[in-house]
Amino acid sequence: xxxxxxxxxxxxxxxxxxxxxxxxxxxxxxxxxxxxxxxxxxxxxxxxxxxxxxxxxxxxxxxxxxxxxxxxxxxxxxxxxxxxxxxxxxxxxxxxxxxxxxxxxxxxxxxxxxxxxxxxxxxxxxxxxxxxxxxxxxxxxxxxxxxxxxxxxxxxxxxxxxxxxxxxxxxxxxxxxxxxxxxxxxxxxxxxxxxxxxxxxxxxxxxxxxx
Length: 211
Ligand code: JB2
What we know:
25 strands; six-stranded mixed beta sheet; binds GDP-perosamine; mainly beta; 211 residues
């Protein structure tokens, strides 16, 4: 891994810094759109300024880490990722040393697997996807790009999750279920049937609701 710059200096950046430290990565600092954070620090790492600072670094000389999380929409995280990819930057994947990631699982660029998460054999995770603290992705799950599997989620075997979907904290999805793209699965839901693209569901069993 090249020296690293984190994009975003909020809550998600904190857990990423912890994982990067424990992985022995060299962290240069962070960039954040909030000018009031510039020249301050986060956990002892400098906030270098906003995204314009990245123009000083030749693409490929540093690795970026997308530290913009989500609580419902993945739009912001996705658009920042794609903007900087188009500029030629490379996003490193981050796997916390105390995550369990099967060597028979496939992860794409910019994937983040946090402390206590489990990713089982045959599972695949698309680019820029987060498997957050203590979440479980069981065997042969296919998780798309720009997805957030929030803390404590359980995806049973053979679950499919479409791009840009947010699966809220503590939700459970039973085996073989297909969840579409750009969906919101509310925290604590138990999903026992398919969810169509763009839908929001909540409850036990999870039912559609309008946001
Ligand atoms: O375009 C941007 C940009 N847009 C927002 N470029 C850069 N470099 N930074 C950007 N930001 C910054 O991301 C905001 O100014 C803010 O400082 C940071 C987001 O921090 P916040 O603490 O609001 O949320 P988060 O995304 O770090 O974490 C959320 O998602 C996590 C998964 C929170 O809900 C956390 O509690 C949650 N664990």
